[in-house]
Amino acid sequence: MSQDAQHAIAEAFTADWGRIVATLIGRTGDWDLAEDCAQQAFAEAVRRWPTDGVPRRPGAWLTTVARNRAVDRLRHEQMKAERLREASAVLARSDGTDGEEPLWDEGEIADDRLRLIFTCCHPALPLDGRVALTLRTLAGLTTAEIAHAFLVPEPTMAKRLVRAKHKIAHAGIPYRVPPAHQLPQRTSGVLAVLYLLFNEGYTASAGPDLIRVDLCGEAIRLARALTALMPDEPEAGGLLALMLFHHSRRLARVDQAGDLVTLEEQDRSRWDRAEADEANALLHTALARHAAGPYQLQAAIAGCHVNAARAADTDWRQITVLYERLLEVMPYPLVALNHAVATAMATGPGEGLALVERLAASGELRDYHLLHATRADLLRRLGRSSEAGAAYRQALDRTSSEAERRYLTRRLQEVDPGHAET
Q1: Using H for helix, E for strand and C for coil, what is the string for the chain?
Q2: In the chain, is it the N or the C terminus that has fewer CB atoms within a 10 Å radius of its CB?
Q3: Which domains does the chain carry?
Q4: 184 pLDDT higher than 90
């Protein structure tokens, strides 16, 4: 296959897979049919584009082919005559098309994609099903790729996807954007799924690599789509800004050996300034609506880090204030832990440690490795090496990330030189 055709197909898959699937689901109501026909359209592109050339409008060409395959399948399977007539009437267009004209106007396609996002992230579905269905249907990942991403066997992931689709069909989950009174709650659920996906890529829960760039990329792509579909939703823009701020630091977060590099030690010349600038613009637009929610506040915190030319220039007092505001809308232990870290940086490790000890005493994060790692780091800064060593060991006992284990082991050896890695 020529490089031009290969590049065009890859670009079209990234840009148009979710649109094609959303459009076909909206017209046929059949999720499996939509995915199968979209796959067949791309297979046809692989066969024809190297010899026929790349169409002027690749997305419209692919949508036309997928539409035709859907009509053929409906006829071949001899479904009820009424369904065939209704689906064919909506899908069919005049025979004069050259496959490059859009089948439906862009407004309809945008509505289909938005409906699909909300359907995939419906609260009636279990969270793991929402994430899996979002990756499969909107991002076009295969079942094997999704299973690999979340470190589960492929048959397990296949069952999750089947259960999610059956739940949509049998529970009568509507394929629609929620009514106005449900929109705030449902939008937050969609954002949570995308944020969960990004976080799993940004700091992998297990495995040899700290960062899963593929997952981060898919989450950012879906967040871009949601922001484009909901331009008046400031939290969508805030989430995308938050992702981009974090993602802009990806090249500096690990060294050549794949080991974790802390924020204060990162080479800031390796940060992606274009992504950071885009994040700043998105955050500015979102905050201008004067409805700062949790994602905008987290993005503002991330921006304080990324916009500091040197670690010493970081405005930790402003970060502490932002965490206090975040605690008002998200009174969660993880936010409290981050607030404690900011307090330690702003006013000293002693005050930060007092907040961490209070959080540890509550027992809410006793199995969370970063609570113990944070406590260990503050104890180390205070010169309490023996206690720090014990806390580092507790953190090591609670993490399955190999990159984080190597980092914690190095820290432990600093306070306990006699420690041998096991």
Answers
A1: CCHHHHHHHHHHHHHHHHHHHHHHHHHHCCHHHHHHHHHHHHHHHHHHHHHHCCCCCHHHHHHHHHHHHHHHHHHHCCCCHHHHHHHHHHHCCCCCCCCCCCCCCHHHHHHHHHHHHHHHCCCCCCHHHHHHHHHHHHCCCCHHHHHHHCCCCHHHHHHHHHHHHHHHHHCCCCCCCCCHHHHHHHHHHHHHHHHHHHHHHHCCCEECCCCCHHHHHHHHHHHHHHHHHCCCCHHHHHHHHHHHHHHCCHHHCECCCCCECCHHHCCHHHCCHHHHHHHHHHHHHHHCCCCCCHHHHHHHHHHHHHCCCCHHHCCHHHHHHHHHHHHHHCCCHHHHHHHHHHHHHHHCHHHHHHHHHHHHHHCCCCCCHHHHHHHHHHHHHCCCHHHHHHHHHHHHCCCEEHHHHHHHHHHHHHHCCCCCCC
A2: C
A3: 3-105 (no CATH), 112-177 (1.10.10.10)
A4: no
